[in-house]
Fold:
Amino acid sequence: MTTMSIETLKSIKASGNKFAAITAYDYSFAKLVDKADIEVTLVGDSLGNVIQGQRTTIPVTLDEMAYHTNNVRRGIQSSLILSDMPFMSYGTVPQALENAAILMQAGAQMVKLEGGEWLSETVYALTERGIPVCAHLGLTPQSVHKLGGFKVQGKDANAADKIVSDAKILESAGADLLVVECVPSTLGKELASSLNIPVIGIGAGSDTDAQVLVLQDMLGISDGAPKFSKNYMAQSSSIEEALRTYRNEVLSGAFPEPKHQF
Ligand code: KIV
Structure:
């Protein structure tokens, strides 16, 4: 696979094709993800759950994100490295600039921020300074206490309209990708068709431009994987084969199946 860039991801969308993303947190798994030609490697703050055994992503620190980003960086040749900015590391524009720079210097090629319209100034400030941004809408796990739990978002028309409006504002502010988590598949489809930037879904149906899963969920080793995930080890004899099958199923549209959708 050639080195992945944002432009390549946009051209995949423009040609009506799909791409795959997966989380990784260390060198060894990053090498396997890269070998399986997975287009985007997300150093997710889900490492709080699957590496640290925390209940939420809130305890994850910037130092930890930089440490894991740096380890992943050494395992990647081609895949695009996207790193999560952790809880309260982008509460203000100056904080976001300072902390995003740390992740970029650790090896990230793009940073991901959870939140809607309120982040437009931050997205603009980061992108103007050469830091690509992926927005994250729908279920935003860093706000779990405000949301009242890990629940499907955008279920009624007003909530869905707000997510679409936030997405358009963040795209106009300069975001190059959008992750949308845990929303009805009709909303995932609407987002993908109304934005020019690629929309990566997780529990957002089969009509988004790409899918992302948490590695440990798709390897069947997490504590209770969500409904929208699939255990690819159940049908594979190696981790590399599981990753390749996942990517093939995303690209062909075979994953997610109706049972993985809301
Ligand atoms: O941290 C993470 O793994 C994520 C995905 C759930 C999209 O943000």
About this structure: Residues 29 and 158 are 40 Å apart (CA to CA). The beta strands are 19-23, 40-43, 80-84, 110-114, 133-138, 177-181, 199-202, 210-213. The pocket of 3-methyl-2-oxobutanoic acid is lined by residues 23, 42, 44-46, 84, 179, 181, 202, 212, 214 (CB under 6 Å). The longest strand covers residues 133-138.
